[in-house]
Amino acid sequence: MTAKRSPNPLHQSKSYVHAPLIILSILFLIPFVWLIMSSLQPREQVGKNPPEWLPRQHYIMHDEKKIFVTPPEEIGIEKVEVKMLEGLKKGQQLLVDKSAYQNGQVLQKVQVADQFEEKAFAAELIASYAATDVYVKRWQLSKITPAEEGRQWFCVKPEDVQVEINAVWGNYGEAVRALTAGEEYKALPLSELMAKSSTPLTDKHADGVTITFLTYLLNTLVVAVLSVIGTVLSSSLVAYGLSRIKWRGSNTLFIITLSTMMIPFPVLMIPLYSVFRELGWIGTLMPLWVPAFFGSAFNIFLLRQFFLTIPSEISDAARIDGCSEFGIYWRIMLPLAKPALAVVALFQFLFCWNDFLGPMIFLTEPSTFTMALGLQQYQSQHGGSEWHLLMAASVLLVLPIIVLFFFMQKTFIQGISTTGVKG
């Protein structure tokens, strides 16, 4: 007989800690999952109440072909489908009330001078529909895309309309096209649109410069990369001087530097705008990345705390070997501080990638807009109604951040866990 092992209290305590973390992780994950699901839904489903998670599309079989259609609407009263033989709508197939079709003619209102009169026009009867039938239209990817060729509406029995789980992957390509300025570019295939985007600042159309999704993306990358370089270099240099070099007033200057974090950005907006206007930088990307080369209080604090964890004997040995102070900073401290530098770089990249207020204040031309401002520009132009496209564009905006975090996850966690730990 073997004695039963008593449960390890340490493992039990770990499970109690992990359970709340898992629950919180799921709660934080729900909005992101909703963003993904909404970006794959058809336009009519995004605003549905109550909301649905899985993307679903309605379809009918017509001429042995599956046609995706809008959600069915009951006709309500008996209607007939006719083909107009005369009048302004000659040759068109119309759906009219049954009472409006009599003796091979359709009564229609026409404007005569400033009044409307009813006139009868010859029409050919094609089909009759009961009040219980439903009306559907051929589904389109977006309101701003041109209508597809062929029949655009159908009247069918309610049981003929089927529903299937179907992700609309075309929302992503349409979102890219929707962010393109110039109506003649709206219906272009994605490959041709990207080819035109290769020279976004020189390709012209009737209204001026052609602005594409790639334009916003390149502008955002330029700002983010230059800001990361400036922040890492300037903040690490200041942090090294405050942590590794002994001089009178260093602690006082460090406290003053930290106190600047309490000044809200709205207080600085007008003075910064005045300075950049005098420099002639308004309307360019320079106000968004040049200040990064002058350090950041939070990043200086983070790197200073990390530099304090590095043994001073390393710097003393380098000085004995004749290394200059800048050489110690560049050749020894920066390589040892890679985890902390990665944290600073990631924080700065995230800030620049998601920044909206800065570009809105300093940028005036659409050719310099960043992704965040480009999305807002699209929303204001189209009334904010194309929510499925906004969701798809938001996914494209968030995706690089997620990929970057997963690639830098180990370094990021290492930098956070070791910063401020004296060893």
Question: How would you portray this structure in words?
Answer:
- The protein folds into two domains: 58-165, no CATH class; 213-418, Orthogonal Bundle (MetI-like fold).
- The protein is 50% helix and 16% strand.
- By secondary structure, the chain is an alpha+beta fold.
- It is elongated.
- Helix 3 (170-178) packs across helix 15.
- Strand 1 and strand 2 form a beta hairpin.
- The protein has a five-stranded antiparallel sheet with strand order 5-4-8-7-6, with no helix packed on it. A three-stranded antiparallel sheet has the order 2-1-11, with no helix packed on it. Strands 3-9-10 form a three-stranded antiparallel sheet, with no helix packed on it.
- The model is unreliable at 182-188 and 196-208 (pLDDT under 50).
Which series of helices and strands comes N to C?
HHEEEEEEEEEEEHHEEHHHHHHHHHHHH
Tally of helical segments: 16
Question: How much of the residues is beta strand, in percent?
Answer: 15-25%
- CATH topology-level fold name of the largest domain: MetI-like fold
User: Which sheet architecture does the biggest sheet show?
Assistant: 5 strands, antiparallel
| Quaternary organization | single chain
Q: What's the CATH architecture of the largest domain? A: Orthogonal Bundle
The CATH homologous superfamily of the largest domain = MetI-like
Tell me how many strands there are: 13
What's the CATH C level of the largest domain? Mainly Alpha
**Helical/strand content category:** alpha+beta
